Amino acid sequence: MFSLLKKRMASSIERFGKRVKEREISEKDIDEFISDIQIDLLSVDISLEVVEFLRQRLKGMLVGMSVKRSELKRIIAKAIENVMLEILNAGSYEIKSYGKGTCVLFLGFNGTGKTTTLAKIGKLLMEKGYSVVFAAGDTFRAASIEQLAIHSKKLGVKLIKHSYGADPAAVIFDAIKHAKTKGIDFVLADTAGRSHSNKNLMEELKKIVRVNNPEIKLLILDSLSGIDAIEQAKMFNDTVGIDAMIFTKADVNEKGGIIISVCHEIKKPIAFLCTGQSYDDIKRFEAKEFVRHILPFQD
User: Fold this and answer.
1) Most confident of 17-26, 41-50, 105-114, 121-130
2) pLDDT above 60: residue 242
3) Does domain 3-88 have CATH number 1.20.120.140?
4) CATH topology of domain 102-285
């Protein structure tokens, strides 16, 4: 997982360590380092905006510092770690209850693993002692209700659904009403996948939020989608505002840079990484663990 990013970082830091002698680090040194590493960073889905942010932060941290050549690789790696943590530490995020019928809305494009992720979160919450109900708010995509029904049966969770073509805002409204009546802690609400061209669906999403006022809005992003994920995140955040993100397919992602790029762009926390198809293939995102995993030459 994310092995390519670590490999590219290591080679660039190694070259920088050989080039800089024992003396004060200059702005020119940092500019040359960034010029050397830029293509490598872009190739692993780190955006140009992050590259420039890294340049300015490294200058602020390192210019004028006297270092021994033997220590240079460790020092530059530590400085990069601090910059990455600054980007990723939008705050840790934990799904919490706001009372009975707390609504968690799952957002994202088709194919991101949104419905499966909803089921994983359902299992996590039940393992913590919470009760949950699923809401089939995707009344647009063929077989979406059946897919959620399979998860609800496997997990023993009640599913609130209407027919295809029904108003998804009404489906979720009914699920929240059911949860509050029955004393159920969480409503996990699926929604139809959306894209830039689905203007009607985006308006529908605004209506869902306006009618139901969900306490938590989670954006599900495919970590393999590359730079497109930045525009997806911006679109959903600008349209309805999101609270946190979950990245799927992290187990097969050798790059990893898109996670950094999206966080830098919309300044929202990451709640979880999904690492497979089973219900247990989900882990809480820890920024420090992630950065340590992608950076070489750590203590």
Assistant:
1) 121-130
2) yes
3) yes
4) Rossmann fold (3.40.50)
